[in-house]
Every structure is written in structure tokens, then in C-alpha cells.
Amino acid sequence: MVDKTRSWWGWGNTEDAISGTELDELISRVRGMLPQADLTPVPVPSITELGIGTSGLTAPTGLASLCSDDPADRAAHTHGKAFRDVVRNLAGDLDHVPDLVVRPTTEQEIIDVLDWCSRSNIAVIPYGGGSSVVGGIEPRLDGDYAGAVSLDLGELDQVMEIDRTSRAARIQAGVFGPALENRLRPHGLSLRHFPQSFEFSTLGGWLATRAGGHYATGYTRIDDMVESLRVITPSGTGQSRRLPSSGAGPSPDRLFLGSEGTLGIITEAWMRLQDRPRWRGSTSVHFTDYDTAVAATRAIAQSGLSPTNCRLLDAAEAFLNAGTAVSGGVLVLGFESADHPVQAWMERAVELCRDHGGELPAPPRYTDAPTPREGRTTADNWRSAFLRMPYQRDALAARSMIVETFETACTWDRFPALHAAVVEAANAALASTGASGVLTCRFTHLYPDGPAPYFGVYAAGRPGATLQQWDEIKAAVSEALHAHGGTITHHHAVGRDHRPWYDRQRPDPFAAALLATKTTLDPNGILNPGVLLPV
Amino acid sequence: MVDKTRSWWGWGNTEDAISGTELDELISRVRGMLPQADLTPVPVPSITELGIGTSGLTAPTGLASLCSDDPADRAAHTHGKAFRDVVRNLAGDLDHVPDLVVRPTTEQEIIDVLDWCSRSNIAVIPYGGGSSVVGGIEPRLDGDYAGAVSLDLGELDQVMEIDRTSRAARIQAGVFGPALENRLRPHGLSLRHFPQSFEFSTLGGWLATRAGGHYATGYTRIDDMVESLRVITPSGTGQSRRLPSSGAGPSPDRLFLGSEGTLGIITEAWMRLQDRPRWRGSTSVHFTDYDTAVAATRAIAQSGLSPTNCRLLDAAEAFLNAGTAVSGGVLVLGFESADHPVQAWMERAVELCRDHGGELPAPPRYTDAPTPREGRTTADNWRSAFLRMPYQRDALAARSMIVETFETACTWDRFPALHAAVVEAANAALASTGASGVLTCRFTHLYPDGPAPYFGVYAAGRPGATLQQWDEIKAAVSEALHAHGGTITHHHAVGRDHRPWYDRQRPDPFAAALLATKTTLDPNGILNPGVLLPV
Predict the structure, then answer these.
(1) B265 interface with A at CB cutoff 8 Å
(2) How do A330-337 and A401-407 pair as beta strands?
(3) Cα(B309)–Cα(B323) distance, rounded to whole angstroms?
(4) CA-to-CA distance for A103 and B157, rounded, in angstroms?
(5) Interface residue B528 vs chain A (CB under 8 A)
(6) How far apart are the C-alpha atoms of B202 and B332, rounded to whole Å?
(7) Sign for the pseudo-dihedral over CA of B525, B529, B530, B532
(8) Partner of B57 for a Cys bridge, out of A44, A57, A261, B147, CB 3.0 to 4.6 A?
(9) How many pairs of residues across A and B have Cβ atoms under 8 Å apart?
(10) ipTM of the complex model
(11) Cα–Cα distance between A460 and A38 in angstroms, integer?
């Protein structure tokens, strides 16, 4: 594989950006949908144009070799990969650049960095793949710090031990998704955790942000795959016992899962793995009515069948992202197993869909292949398209489009009102900000008691004003989610950007407990200040 | 149903104690196994013989009507229901009797009690069903307290709301298992949480101790059934948002699940429910070799089939508790569903067993019955026997037998060595304490990465010395569990009795976080002092 260059301003690798025919087709599709859009591209500024100043920090001698003050490196560690990050990068608005990027190679070096920064009042921003979409890795600091370092865990990227019997592995936090899977594949194992950011995010990032995987039901959130965590805090290092389950007190790991770098640095974890699937079944079900489609999806979620994929696309989503015109939406259904053919499961799920008026344009397709070639199955095709979406977003963001997603979870009883309120709030905000476009909705994850709806906004913005337009839309839909019983985030984390709603959703005693924990483990308040907590 | 009388000294209701023919048969079985046992029964002391003094506390006027200083009431709230509790009760050793039993009927009364006790330095022991087996509800206090009250939540026992669409209910913490199921049954719903203590334990107790349910795999621990918790702490009240899932920061609920009454009083919860099962399949698989039986069980645990029952009984357990003589043990397999027949699932599980040399004495039995009559199925029979076990324990404890269980969980790779070490430690401790008997093992819960082994000790003790004998055996097996990678408890909680091992297993940063949380939420240290934490 040829080494590629990570984009400092947008998603992924620069070599993989949308270009040529793919770009022409994308632009053409957008013009068809939004003929009035001004799609003049914004040029990407050069690093020198950004005017990044000299680093305000000098590392102690022993750590200097780990530190980079290169402006390009620092620029790439300034923002995450949200729409608002890309827009700011393209505009050259890098207001909070880290002074240094520090790449420790051992745990002792992490301890030394934390000691130095604790002594010197330097903010430390833990950095995995940098794919935060909530301002989680941005040194946007309220407090009075001597500076900020981005602590890039990328050098800690090894699989240290594999326990084939228990199907588990001890893995360092800085490993990226593809490298991890490549190392597990020879053992017939997989973490099977495929968030959209898979190629450009790390195990440590998934753990710190409680990432949601690709699969629709069952154990899909990273939390459930953790046997044991190892965490370095400014006050000391801890490792939980490697256990399949324990009832001894509140779970130690659950305090650090979702702590988003504010309580400590997750350096490694024992993760539960799975055998690589062999049997697969997939199909698409069409509905003429959305409410009925939702009811069918709920029936499957409550059936105990646990499909790996059960993604209800509403009509707009089906049209835009799957090219299918169906009034009530499309349910994409899939089952996978490493142990047994999945026909019985699929047949019952299809029966439930038909009971709710769903129709199958084609019968379910089944495969029995231990190692499917890339791009061979429908699921692979969909996955390729899925992984291309952030690149498309970049191309459109550079052309004054507003292209962004937001997500939540709520109980089934509240979903109709929540959905209606979000549609209303989004449309009102699009109108009031002068943007024209569409809102789409799909379910990314399903639980017996509720779905995780994932919304997309695709709108023509005003050149130079899309950041402000999006911020207004985001605030409006967030209020709607909050008012109608949704969480402010199902799997995008809190970071700095979700704080206004997170603060209102978090129970007061837990807020007090979290603050007390923070003060105890990070007494100088150096770890990712402003994320989750005011300090 | 006729009202029954709760036993102050032993399990359950006095009317249901083992007696008559059932007692004769039990004694006869024990004599056959342990002919040398001295089975002279110890009489149950009368309450007056216990010499319980006058309460040292007087409640404020507004709370007086909620408080009982009746010696029988206080005696019944002194100990949990472990073997060592029963033995101490029969010996009249009630060293730490609560001064008052307080039964609040509203949240405001709970707040008032906490305020009074915080002001007056009185320890508060939250009490659900009182079925702790780890000293969790015993006012055994190290600190200097003005007294202790047992806060009995039994008056808060209502199902407040049912959401049929999302299959969830808002339930008060003080409800007992059977009353809860009776209220959910008309709606076709069930919490399906059936710990062995089911009849005499409460929702609040299950939540505070992270109880494990009856089912072997999947979502069986109470943690996974929680949508939202409501908790009153001495520093304020909090309620988490009702959500199917959320990725917003560390889970607030997971901090209180397993807090064992040390951080606050859980007053109610929104719980995820299930449709009542209709289709059932069950079978028993015999093995000639235990290691192979373990391997078969592991294969099922890693298959994704998720059986409701998958209980591997070793040879001693199969002989003692199922009356089956099989050299390698018996795997009791079951599937249940409210949605679909379970043949496909069972057939694949049986195939996995046969691949590992398992043999079925009879083909699997399947039923299709929405409301099975009590006692009709094998599973019901087993469940009845299961629920009788604590009564048998009492009868034998009163006859100088040592009858107790301990449990753990470990990864599969460690199980053989852990099992061998526990067998060796138990046998050595039995010998050194002069007890003779047997150790049994079954798996109560299964995870893809490891089992939860549950051990039983059945031994003839020395009259008057069984408490000391058991404590020595327990310490020895706990050391073996600890040394071989097991948790000190999979589902019996920590309480006061597991502290020596819990303290060694808990990561230091989490211990510091828990202590900081405790100090913040319960600044006067009144809540269940000595449980989980030194204060």
C-alpha cells in the first residue's frame, strides 16, 4: 500500500478527496436538487497563509524529541472533522492552535508529559485520530493556561496479546481501525467495530467517546466490548481486572468510558473480539407509509432477532443516499454470523415487515463466504459509499453547501413527536438563515425501547456564512431534541460543542460526582479543559 | 393468598420452612452422603432471648410515625440472609442491631430522614428485601455514630407508569419481585429478572447491588435493563433522562448501579421490560469429561445463539441438585422467545454440544404456551427447587451443616487453573477446619469471553463452630479466586464481607474517584458506612 498524506483541513487522505468524474457527478446531482446553489469552490489555504505563530512552549529536554512545533502538524491538530471544522479551516480561521504536538512512545513518557504540564499549567488535549465532530480535540480554552499541547497517541498502536480462547486482545489505544483489523485477521478475529470514522479514528478515541459501531443492535457500542482499561491520570495509573463481567461495586471502566480525555489518558484495553462472520443475509424492505415502517422496525427491535443491520431510511434518505424513490422509506436488513446460516432469523424478520405492509422488491440474498472480497457484497458497496460520505461532505463544504449530521436516541413512544419537532425546527432554521435544502433521517442503532435517529442536513448556504447558518440550525434542532426527550448525543460525544445541552441533561448529583472526580484525578485541571465540564 | 410471616432469622416465610416429609427426606439424603454428621437441630431463639436493648435514638416528631423500635422488627433488620447470618441468628449473636426501622412512604420523607441523620450523625442502612449475603445491610460500623437506622423502602412499592410502546415502566424501588411481576402480567410484560432471591428482594436492592438475573446470556444483569434512575442523596436528588442509550459523557446511572446504598437512595427507575415468552425449548446434555463440557459451553457462549439457560453443572452439582450421575457434568440448555419458535436456535446449540461429545438422553422438548401453568414445565420444576434451596440451607444450617455458596467470573483462558485452585483451596480448608463435605460448581451466567462459575459447599461442621469454619473456608477460596484472575463477586455484591478482596481488585484512581464522590454526595458519611469504602 502506498503511503498517503493526511489532510490537515478535511477528512482522510488528500489523495482520496473527491475529484474528476466523481466530483462532476456529485456536483451535477446537487445542481439537480438545488439549482439555485452557488457552488463556487473555496480554495484550500496554504499552511503559511494561516499565520500560525511560534510555539509559546518549550518542552523539557527529556521530552523535546517527542514534540513537534511544525505549523502544518499543529494546524492538523487544531480542529476535529465536523462541518464547522472544515469550514473554519477553509476560511483560515484557526484561532486556537496547540503549541506543540507531542507523540509519546511509552507510558512513562505520558506520565512525564502529564507531570510537566501539571507543573507548568499547560492544557493537555488527548488526540487519537482527530475525528471529533464536537470540538473535542480543539484547544478552545476558557481558563488561564500557559499553553496547550496536543497529546497524539499514534505511536502506541500495537496489539500486545491475543487470547484466542476467550476471544480477547490487549490493544494499545493509538491504533487505527484498519491496522487493528489487519493484525486480528490472521487469528480469524475481529473487533467488528466499524464507526463511519473507522479508517481515521483509534481505539482510544472510541473508548474515550463511547463510540457506536456500525451494527444496529446488540453489543455495538464500544462500552460493551471492554474487558479492562488501563488509564494514566495525573494522580496515578490504574488498570481494571480483566473480566467478562463483575458485580463488585460500580464499574470502574464505565467512569472512564465517555470521559473524553478529561480524567485520564486511556493507554490500552483488553477488548472482546468476535470470530469473523461467514454467513450473511441481506435485503431491503419498502414501505408506503413512514409510521408503519417505524412500527415494523420497532417490532424487529423487540423481537430478540438482533439483526446486524436494521437501518430505516426515510424517503429523503433513501432517495439521496440509496437512489430509491419510496414514499414510506426503506428498511435495510442484514444478519451475519460466524456460527450458523442466518435464514431462520431473516425469514422471521421479513415476516414481521410483511405483517406491517412492507414489500421486498427482491428476495433476501444469502452468502456463505469466510473472507468476502472487498466490494463484492451489497453490504460492502454500501460500506464503501458510507466511508466516502465525509469526502463528499468536504467537497460540498468547499462549495458553500451546508452538509452536516446530528443524532440522538429516544424511547419509541416519544419518537413521532421528536421527529416532527426536529423536522419543524430544521425547516424553520433553514428558512430563517436563508438556506434551502432538505433534512433526512435514518436509524443507525436500534434498541428494544427506542431508536437512535440520525439526521442529515443538505442545504445550499450563503458563501462565507455557512458556519453561522449551521450553528443556528444546530442550536434549533438541539433544542427540539432536548425538549422531546432525546439525548443530545447518541454516539458523537459531548466535547465542547454539546455542552450547553449536556449540562442541562446531566443529573446534578452526577455532575457533582464528576467534578469531584476531576478535581481528585486531575487536580491542576490540565486535561482537556472545557470538555464535559467547565474546567 | 394467605398472608405469611417473614422469618426474622432465616430465609423467606416461616410457613414455608422445610418440615415434615420434606425435612425427613433432606436429612436422610444428607445422612447418606455424610454419615458422620451430627445433625442435632439448634432451636431458634425467641426474640426476648436475644436481649435487644432499648433504641438509643428518638426520631423527630415529624418522622416518629414512620419509625419502629420493636425488637422483633429490629432483629429482622440486623443481618442479611447469608449462611453466616443464619448461624449468628440461631446462636443469638446480634451484635449490631439497628436502633430504629424507618419506613418512609414518600420521597420527601426520605429527604427528611437523610437530613435528620446527617445533622445527628446517624448511620443510615438502606434496606430492600434484606437478602444481602455479604453483610450489606448490617449496621456493623467502624465509625463513631450516634446510632443506626435501617431505612426500609418497602412502602414505596408501586408501578407508577407503563409505556407499552417502548416496553418500559416506571417502578418504585421497594417493590418485591412477585408483586412487580403480578402488576406487569396484565400488560403482557415482564422484567424477566429472576434472581434466586426473587421472592424476597426488591427492585431497589437489585439495582444497588447490580444483581444478576436467572438467564444465562445476553441482557441478564439488572444494569442493562435500566433506562433511568432516580436517586436521593444527602446533597440533592437526581434523575437521569429516560433513554434507550446515550453517549453523552460517562453514564450517570452506572455510578449508582452497584453503589450499594453508599451514595444515595434509589427511589425509582424506568426499567426495560420484555414481552412474556411463549415459545420454549429445553434439553439436557450429558458429558463424560468436564473439560470437554466446558469447551462445549464456551462454543455456545461464543456462537451468538444467546440461550436463556446454559447451565453447566459439574458431576457433583448434577448428582446433588439434579439427581443425575454423569462423570463430566450436565449442560442444561434452554431457549425462550415471545416472538418466534426456538427450534433453529436449539438445534444449532445441540449440534455444538454433539461436536464436543455431548449426548442427549432425550430429544429437546418444545412448548408453545403463552401462560404456562405453575409447575408444569421442567424449567418450572427446576425453578421451584431453585427457590427452595435457601430454605434447605436454613434447615441444614440449624443442624451444624456448612451450606453456602460463592461465585465469580473469569475469562475462559483462566478458568481451568482457577477451578483447580478453588477445588484445592476448598478441600484444604475443609480439612484444616475439620469439616468434611463436597464442593460443587455450576455456571450461572455465560459471556463470550468467560463464564461465571458458582460454587457450593456442603459439609458437616462442628456444632457451635460452623461460623468460624465457614469464614476460614471463604477466606481460602477468595484468595484462590483473587490469585487466578476472578472477580471477588459476579453478582453477590461487595457489602462489608468482600471488602478485603474488593479493595485489592479496585484500581486506585477509581477508588479515589469513588471516595471523592462519596465525600461530595454524602459529606457526613451517613450512608451505609463500611460498605464498598472504609467510611
Answers:
(1) no
(2) unpaired
(3) 19
(4) 55
(5) no
(6) 28
(7) negative
(8) B147
(9) 296
(10) 0.96
(11) 7
